[in-house]
Structure formats: structure tokens, C-alpha cells
Amino acid sequence: MQEVSIKKNISIISHVLGWALFGALLFLLIPFSSRLEFPMEFWTKQILMFGILIATFYFNYFYLIPRLLFKNKVGLFLILNLLGGLAYIGLLILFDEIFNMQQLMHQVFRPGTEYVKRPRNYSYDFYNVLIFYMAVGVSTSIATVQKWQQDEKIRFELEKAKTNSELSYLKAQINPHFFFNTLNNIYALTNLDVEQAKTALLKLSRMMRYVLYETEKNQTLLSKEVDFLMDFIELMKMRLSNKVHLDIQLPEKVQNIEIAPMLFLPFIENCFKHGVSSQQESTISIRLENSDNQLRLITKNNVFKAKENTPEGQSSGIGLANTKRRLELLYPHQHNLKISENKENNYFEVDLKLTLA
């Protein structure tokens, strides 16, 4: 509220100063610089002209422009302003005739000489009508620029709301998908090793706290994200056989920079979801590099096709598709993602480079 009040006061002051400068230049500078004594009728006419210009400016600004010009009634807007200019000149001519301004001004500029009525000098009227339409043009320009700025602000707010809504939807899709797979793993462990299952549940509870509290924020510390990934990988290790060879390189110390939460998880989850076989040898490689404000995640894994009636087979690609979209929304022009699959050598590779502010 205070900020709005300050902006309103500044706007009022700028209008007052602008009109003061405009009036001084057009209606005071020449009379005062000539050092002549002008009659009261002259100053009355100057005040009248100045008042009409101010009234025209704000009538055009607050009424004609929003009700006609911005509603595509351009023809009526132009006709009314044209008639306004003609009425303005007509009023000045009428004022001159009533108060005999030609004779009064003759006495000011040529005192002591005989006055002879001459035909009206319409070049002065043309100058006045130009001033009138200058006031109309300035008010139209200001109103148009402000309307454009307001429309841009509304468009930006709508786009921002749409982006936030889409991000919330994408995160809501990722989180249940992650827990669904993790709970499946723990369920499998309960049939093999109860103690390991208990340990897995403890790790899962810590991860759930991270998801519940950190994903509510737009940003989280990179150190917390790395700890979360380590917990996830440790959880995945519990169900792996000796046929799976892991090459995990996560930095122990990272910079105190912020990142969108759960941004890397789908790529790492994808390695364990599609890169593990109970019958064949496989390798999973995960490497996260942190240098200055640059992050680089490289994952590489073998590919084993999941059965269509399994959760892995039915949900394949959901996490990766959502993460691509999150990257586009959160880090436009700040990321470079390369995903490649070599069917001949049977491996899937992800290379993500991320620049953080």
C-alpha cells in the first residue's frame, strides 16, 4: 500500500510540474520577455486557453481514449477530437470579438497610433489549433503506452501463473512416480532381508522429509540435493545383485548454490529402472561434477526392456519427459541436455550441463 501511495504521489507531482513547465513556456515566456504591459483581457485569454488545454488532455485521457479508442471506435474518436479543435478555435475567435482583442493588442504594441480594424490573422489560429492537437496527441501517447505496459504486466503475470501451475503439476507427477518405484523395491526386500527392509524404510523416511519440505520451495541447496541422491542410490543398492557394477561419483563437498529440487532424480532413477537385469551383467555409471556455477550430470547404463505389465514398463519415460519440461521452464538458455541411446552396444547415456546464477 505504501509503495502504491508513493507511486501515486510521484505521478501527481510529475503532472503538476509538467503542466507548470508547459504553461510557462507557451503562455508566460513571450509576454514576460517582451516587457510590455498587457491588459487583463489578454491574461484572461491566456488562462482560458491553458485551462481548456488541461481539460482537453484529461478528458481525452480518462474518457475518450478508454471508451472509444481502446474499444476500436477510432472514427468517432477522431471526429470528436476534430470537432473539439474547431470548437476551441471558435471559442477563441468569439472571445476576441467580444473583448475587442485586436484593438487592445494594437494599443500594447503600437501605442499612440490610430487603430484601424484589419482582417483576422488566421495563422495565429492555426498555431493555436496545433497546440490543441499536441495536447490531444500527448495524452493519447501516454495512455497508449500505459495501456501497453499494463497489458504486458497482465500477460507476464498470467504466463508466470501458468508456469508455476505447470511446474506444480510436473512435480506432482514425479513424486508419486518415485515413491511408487521405491516402495516396490522395499516390498521386494521384505521377502529377502527384513533388516535391510527396515534400513530402507529409515532412508525412505528421510527422503520423504526432503520431498515434503524442500519441493515446496522453488529452490534448495545443492548439498541437500546431493545428500538426497546419495540416499536414493544407497536405497537402490540394497536390491542389486552382484551382476550390477556401479560407478558412482558424487562430490563430497559442493558449493553453497541453489538448484530446483529433485531435478536430477529422474535421470538417476532411470538408470536403476532400465539398467538392471537379474540374468545379465550390467553397468551403471553416475557422475556429478560441480565447477564454479556449472553443474554436469552424466549417467550411463545398459538397457533392458521391461515387461509391459510391470510398473516400469507402463510408466517408462514419464520422469524424463517431465524433467525436460521442468528444465525448459526453470532454466531456459541455461541448460544443455543430450540423451543418446546406442542399441548396438546396448547403452543409454544422459549428459546434462547446467549453468546456475
Keywords:
membrane, 13% strand, Heat Shock Protein 90, two-stranded antiparallel sheet, phosphorelay sensor kinase activity, alpha+beta, Sig_transdc_His_kin_internal, 357 residues, 10 helices, transmembrane, five-stranded mixed sheet
Write up what this structure looks like.
It is a single chain. The protein has 357 residues and is α+β, with helices and mostly antiparallel strands. It has 2 domains: 2-156, no CATH class; 159-355, 2-Layer Sandwich (Heat Shock Protein 90), CATH 3.30.565. The protein has 10 helices and 7 strands. It has helices at residues 2-34, 40-67, 74-99, 101-109, 122-190, 194-214, 222-237, 265-274, 311-314, 318-330; strands spanning 220-221, 244-249, 258-259, 282-291, 294-301, 335-342, 347-355. It has a 5-stranded mixed sheet, covered by helices on one side. The protein has a two-stranded antiparallel ribbon with strand order 1-3. Helix 2 (40-67) packs parallel to helix 5 (122-190) and helix 5 packs antiparallel against helix 6. The longest helix has 69 residues, at 122-190. The protein is rod-shaped. Residues 308-316 have low confidence and may be disordered.
